[in-house]
Design a protein that fits this description.
Oligomer: single chain
Strand content: 15-25%
Distance between the termini: 35 Å
Mean pLDDT: 94
Order of helices and strands: HEEHEEHEEHEEEEEEEHH
Largest sheet: 8 strands, mixed
Structural class: alpha/beta
Low-confidence stretches: none
């Protein structure tokens, strides 16, 4: 499974110049520096310390997907570590976005698997089988995420795009990034930002 659109050259910060919604909380940060992933969301809802539903979701994952995990407010238990990383890579998952915590950071780094999360915890979830779901609409980082929504995650954060609007947003962002190159060249050549913009509001 692929997202059918190439976002490898698009920055979330560029999208942030013209979109106001669809951005997860800045508290969700990438563990691996300088990485960008994109793809359709495989959504998971996990309750408290119950990790059983993530096992089911990972077993059904398709290549190219990004796992998006709603921890339902749990800010204590790590739901992701060395084993889930290995399982995700084996299924071709390209990254994980977790509204909660991970463990085994060194193993995740060694596996070169991009993860965005709130931090780390030594207390892990257990396979209790008490509830949860996957491939349903979830909340992650303050954003509603539907199965198949396009996730773009990079060093600046995580953006969620409607799959039918992603291509349009990407084209606009790409044009802005091309224009920015020209602006930077003119600044280096000695022009002031005021001269270039002539009072127009420009991205930082």
């Amino acid at each position: 499974m692929t997202s059918q659109i190439d976002l490898s050259d698009i920055e979330t910060a560029t999208l942030g110049h013209f979109l106001e919604s669809g951005f997860m909380s800045p508290a969700l940060q990438g563990l691996l520096p300088g990485r960008t992933v994109f793809g359709p969301a495989l959504t998971v809802r996990m309750l408290g310390d119950d990790g059983a539903m993530l096992t089911e979701a990972l077993s059904a994952a398709k290549p190219g997907q990004v796992i998006v995990i709603d921890r339902c407010g749990d800010l204590r238990h790590a739901c992701w570590g060395a084993v889930t990383t290995a399982a995700a890579k084996a299924r071709g998952v390209v990254g994980a976005v977790i509204d909660g915590f991970v463990t085994d950071r060194s193993a995740i780094e060694q596996a070169d698997f991009p993860v965005w999360c709130r931090g780390r915890s030594p207390i892990t979830t257990k396979p209790r089988g008490l509830g949860g779901d996957f491939n349903v609409t979830v909340g992650c980082g303050g954003v509603s995420v539907r199965p198949g929504d396009i996730i773009l995650a990079d060093e600046n954060g995580v953006a969620v795009l409607d799959k039918d609007q992603a291509a349009t947003h990407a084209a606009r962002a790409r044009k802005m990034q091309e224009d920015e190159i020209t602006i930077l060249e003119r600044l280096r050549a000695g022009e002031t930002l005021a001269e270039i913009t002539r009072g127009a509001k420009q991205p930082a």
